[in-house]
Q: What sequence folds into this?
């Protein structure tokens, strides 16, 4: 099959689409090549894989077989698989995010440091997706010199990849595709004019270098040492409480009946450092509930964490925090805050925080599947915390990253001994994994305890597991 025949076959299966499409680079294109449909045409898919292999290794630009092949997730995975099978080349798979169970690997498969990987992609515009895959392959000691794609959109990817020491091989370019469609009468008139104008205006799509893969680090200071360097008074109090009570277990009391919450708090209070509430889901809420909960917290020496997740402008959150039915600032030792409104949101809390020395917990990462609290958002939340240490006591996160300082308390939700997750996107990790491998400070357990018929017994197990994991760390 030659390039012209391939283009027409792709057009026949509706892989070539005309209209208005947003590309990964963010630009709007009047033409879109959707190679995902090729998985329903096995012979065509096999031909594509072969043409791409031949382009690299039978054109004289590269010598011999690569050690491994790796498809950029997800469209290129079937192509890479076809190439792997046809030429007996081992394959590795790059996950978009490391799984939180099993081997917990970002790169799956058998390989050794120094192996050369041929990266396979369906098409390139800016080259951003390829660079992200190369970054993760490099992070485990693999090398990449060549990248093969079916289509080069001729919008800057080749130049970008070359600057990063990568050779780009393409079976055909956007110009060749368009010429084939014109010659066959598939592209004409105003649509053709739009496509040509678009390509001319977008010859180079600049792409920033991908962010380095997050690096998980360990704190080498014990809680009592970190209490001395904490700026927020509630962070100091919590560090000291954990050290003296010997518990880094928080329990999420996500119950809707006030007496059930009070019973749970009384039962497990001796085992926890923090009880987390969602005050607005309590169906029979009244002020007597708060008084009773405060009494239990004082009796058993734990703090109250209202998981309100404030996310509005400063003036609005001031009222939400201090006023209304719940008057959260008067009793909550800590509350959660989203950063979508920017750092100005913290101004809305300043007066209320002074009432009982409370602290803010910024949501840097979440435990739900598909969470958008990743990448630059996470970095911005860490920066916001570091710039507002008097108000911010810590972060809700899934791992300790390099820029998370020791004066911040790191709390991690989504913890269970059973790490299978639920049907609504919640993902679970074990206490040992969170404390020892992800190096955060406090595990937050919900259903694993309050849905158990013996919550006190279960809380004792979680407390022991998380505290033992903490004690097993290497401290100065």
A:
């Amino acid at each position: 099959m030659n390039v012209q025949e391939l283009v027409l076959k792709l057009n026949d299966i509706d892989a070539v689409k005309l209209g208005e499409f947003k590309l990964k680079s963010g630009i709007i294109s009047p033409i879109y090549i959707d190679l995902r449909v090729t998985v329903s045409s096995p012979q065509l898919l096999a031909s594509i894989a072969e043409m791409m292999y031949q382009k690299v290794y039978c054109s004289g630009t590269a010598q011999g077989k690569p050690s491994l092949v790796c498809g950029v997730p997800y469209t290129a995975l079937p192509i890479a698989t076809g190439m792997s099978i046809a030429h007996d080349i081992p394959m590795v798979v790059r996950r978009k995010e490391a799984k939180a169970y099993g081997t917990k690997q970002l790169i799956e498969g058998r390989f050794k440091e120094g192996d050369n990987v041929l990266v396979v992609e369906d098409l390139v515009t800016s080259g951003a997706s390829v660079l992200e895959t190369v970054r993760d392959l490099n992070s485990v000691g693999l090398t990449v010199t060549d990248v093969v794609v079916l289509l080069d959109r001729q919008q800057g990817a080749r130049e970008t990849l070359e600057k990063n020491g990568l050779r780009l091989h393409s079976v055909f370019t956007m110009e060749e595709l368009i010429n084939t469609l014109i010659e066959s009468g598939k592209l004409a008139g105003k649509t053709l004019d739009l496509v040509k104008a678009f390509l001319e205006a977008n010859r180079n799509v600049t792409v920033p270098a991908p962010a380095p893969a997050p690096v998980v680090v360990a704190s080498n200071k014990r809680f009592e040492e970190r209490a001395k360097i904490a700026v927020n008074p509630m962070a100091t109090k919590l560090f000291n409480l954990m050290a003296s009570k010997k518990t880094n277990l928080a329990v999420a009391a996500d119950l809707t009946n006030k007496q059930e919450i009070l019973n749970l708090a009384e039962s497990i209070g001796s085992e926890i450092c923090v009880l987390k509430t969602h005050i607005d889901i309590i169906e029979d809420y009244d002020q007597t509930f708060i008084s009773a909960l405060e009494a239990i917290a004082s009796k058993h020496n734990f703090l109250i964490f209202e998981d309100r997740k404030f996310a509005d402008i400063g003036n609005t959150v001031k009222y939400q925090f201090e006023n209304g039915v719940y008057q959260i600032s008067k009793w909550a030792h800590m509350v959660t805050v989203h950063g979508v409104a920017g750092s100005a949101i913290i101004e809305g809390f300043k007066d209320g925080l002074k009432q009982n020395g409370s602290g803010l917990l910024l949501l840097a990462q979440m435990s739900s599947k598909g969470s958008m609290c990743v990448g630059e958002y996470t970095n911005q939340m860490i920066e916001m915390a570091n710039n507002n240490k008097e108000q911010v006591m810590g972060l809700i996160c899934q791992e300790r990253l390099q820029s998370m300082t020791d004066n911040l308390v790191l709390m991690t939700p989504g913890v269970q001994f059973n790490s299978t997750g639920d049907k609504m996107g919640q993902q679970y990790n074990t206490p040992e994994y969170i404390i020892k491998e992800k190096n955060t400070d406090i595990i937050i357990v919900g259903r694993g305890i309050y849905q158990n018929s013996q919550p006190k017994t279960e809380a004792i197990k979680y407390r022991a597991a998380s505290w033992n994991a903490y004690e097993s760390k290497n401290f100065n």
